[in-house]
Amino acid sequence: xxxxxxxxxxxxxxxxxxxxxxxxxxxxxxxxxxxxxxxxxxxxxxxxxxxxxxxxxxxxxxxxxxxxxxxxxxxxxxxxxxxxxxxxxxxxxxxxxxxxxxxxxxxxxxxxxxxxxxxxxxxxxxxxxxxxxxxxxxxxxxxxxxxxxxxxxxxxxxxxxxxxxxxxxxxxxxxxxxxxxxxxxxxxxxxxxxxxxxxxxxxxxxxxxxxxxxxxxxxxxxxxxxxxxxxxxxxxxxxxxxxxxxxxxxxxxxxxxxxxxxxxxxxxxxxxxxxxxxxxxxxxxxxxxxxxxxxxxxxxxxxxxxxxxxxxxxxxx
Length: 317
Fold this sequence. Notes:
The chain contains nine helices and 16 strands. By secondary structure, the protein is α/β, with parallel strands linked by helices. The protein has two domains: about 1-125 and about 285-315, Quinone Oxidoreductase, Chain A, domain 1 (Alpha-Beta Complex); about 130-260, 3-Layer(aba) Sandwich (Rossmann fold). The strands form three sheets. Strands 3, 5, 6, 7, 8, 15 and 16 form a seven-stranded mixed beta sheet that branches. A six-stranded parallel beta sheet has the order 11-10-9-12-13-14. The chain has a three-stranded antiparallel beta sheet with strand order 2-1-4, with no helix packed on it.
């Protein structure tokens, strides 16, 4: 594998060309030539060393865990894919990533690329699609008519969550800034709450997807019904938790579930089906080249926390 990654933890200047052995192809694996790689906050958190306790990587490490590409070789037990198939996938976080020319990955984590998408569009979907599916469907059991609140509706996860929640038949409200209200409404939100105008609604919600944590999460708790469900992607180290949150969660008898995205080919197929049914669409903010300069720019953009949708690195080779 030739890719972009790190030999030591640090800022984006640590990103450089990294060469590591490609894993041998096992009987249940695919070798995939990578065409595009999605960029996610977890990428720069790994680069900075913020996740060392959870993922004690052996450096050097190729970053990125979100991709699309073309099957280049197939393990002897694999029946569902053949050489030349276009696919999209999220590999295991514990292993080398997708800012690379190729990767070996279990076929069980892969799905056919949705028809009609570019490689860049498809590469924007795996992490956000899996996160949202596992939060709304598996953790939240969102049903038609449920009232759903999504924090940060214009971000990568939020923009996908609005669409999936609508596809599930929910009433959807989302928070965002004033300047992004129209963007969020166009994604399908029934109600848009501007955090820079003071959150205000008379709606009481059955489910919340928390992508922010901290005071933003705390401020939204007052809108939750008793016995509602919250799915959060924010771990304890990612945001300061105001003291009052525990009391509010207890008073409203909320069920709070932490979601850390797992790779899953069956879930990927659910996302593919929604795309092909035109229920959801990729939201790509910017496509940059899969080069050192492109990756550095992508990380700087991601770290602003102000990106609409997803950033993608495209490998045009």
